[in-house]
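Need C-alpha cells for this chain, all 116 residues.
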Amino acid sequence: MSAEQLLVEVVYALPHKQTLLSLHVEENSTLEQAIVASGVLQLYPEIELKKNKVGVWNKAAKLTDRLEDGDRIEIYRPLIADPKEVRKRRAEKAKQEGRADKVTGGRVNPLRGKNA
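Here are the C-alpha cells for all 116 residues:
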C-alpha cells in the first residue's frame, strides 16, 4: 500500500444480512467517494445517499467528510418508528393499565395505600 492510499471499510446491514467491504481509496477521498467505489450501491439498490444517514465508527458524519486510514464507514437504514414516540405510547399504556403512577409516570408501588 502506498502512502497515498487509505484502507477503509464500508458496512451496511439488514436484519438478515450484513455486508462489510474493504477497499483502498486515494488520500483526501470523501465518504461518498468511498461508498461509490465500494460497489455497495450496486449490491443494495435501495440505498439512497440523499436519504440514508452515514457515520464513521458509530459517529454521524457527512458524505463530504474526508477519510482517514482505517475508517469504518457505516450506512444506516431509516428508522421504522420514532423511538421517542414509541416510548411515549408505551408509558401511556402502562398508566392506563395501572402499572405506572399517573402523576410521576414511575412504577406503581403495590404496597402504597395498604396497611402492611
